[in-house]
Amino acid sequence: MPNTNCLLTYGMVACVALAQASWLGESKAATLSNESCRTVPVLQKKEIVCRTNFYRLNASVEVNKRYVEITGYLHKSLSGYYLFASKDAYVYSAGRDGVYLEVDADQARGFDAEFDNYEGPVTITGLFSRDRRGGASESLGRVKVLGSMFWRQELPGEKPSLPKK
Predict the structure, then answer these.
(1) What is the CA radius of gyration of the chain?
(2) What is the per-residue pLDDT for 144?
(3) How many CB atoms are located within 10 Å of the residue 7 CB?
(4) Fewer CB within 10 Å, N or C, the chain?
(5) In terms of pTM, does the model score above 0.90?
(6) How far apart are CA 72 and CA 91, in angstroms?
(7) What is the reported pLDDT for 55?
(8) Does residue 79 share a domain with residue 25?
(9) Chain centre distance of CA 61
(10) Local structure of 52: helix, strand or coil
(11) Taking 60 as the threshold, does the pLDDT of residue 33 lie above it?
(12) What is the pLDDT of residues 81-130, one digit of tens each?
């Protein structure tokens, strides 16, 4: 039987088989939980990205400074792009309590081409931080979007849209 270790991650106890997680290194094994996680290349090294939701972003301190993948309702305001749990959450919170999406200059062109004049469901992958400086002053924090790891989501029953040429 492999050596196991129980860890507190994202507010839950998760037992990880160290033999399976050893290729990630000891510090990476601490981020594994019962959530859907995978590794992605980030700046010449591999990082663990775990799928999460707005409840965990709001309720857990362990998510701070972690790579996350989250789906939500995208809204563009004068100060930038924000992600909300849903359209209702955006409407009824008067635009507060979303997640500010930090996009660098290299990404801005592709991000604007994909999401300019679009409000709807999207999935974003990036580094979550509780830092509320700049455009994130009335938000849960910010996500520094990784490369081109952002895409639209289609709602059930919608016809798939073809990519732009």
Answers:
(1) 17
(2) 92
(3) 15
(4) C
(5) no
(6) 13
(7) 87
(8) no
(9) 15
(10) coil
(11) no
(12) 999 999 999 999 888 888 999 998 888 888 888 888 888 999 999 999 98
Q: Please indicate, yes or no, if residue 49 is contained in any of the structural domains.
A: yes
Q: Residue 45 in 3-state DSSP?
A: strand
65 and 26 housed in the same domain = no
pLDDT confidence of residue 80: 87
Name the amino acid, one letter, at 18: L
The domain containing residue 124 runs over which residues?
A: 42-152
What does residue 112 show for φ and ψ, rounded to 5 degrees? Answer: -65, -40
Q: What is the pLDDT of residues 10-29, one digit of tens each?
A: 343 343 333 333 333 334 44
Sequence-distant (6+) residues with CB within 8 A of 89 are 54, 73, 97, 98
DSSP state, 24?
Answer: G
The candidate with the shortest Cα–Cα distance to 66, out of 146, 155, 150, is 146
| Distance (Å, whole) CA 113 – CA 105 | 13
**What's the token pair of residue 157?**
């029953």
71 and 102 both lie in a single domain: yes
For residue range 131-151, list pLDDT tens digits in order: 877 666 678 889 999 888 888
Please report where in the chains the tokens 């290349």 appear, as a residue: 41
Q: Pick the closest to residue 114 from 45, 57, 164, 76 (CA basis).
A: 164
For residues 65 and 11, membership in a common domain is answered with no
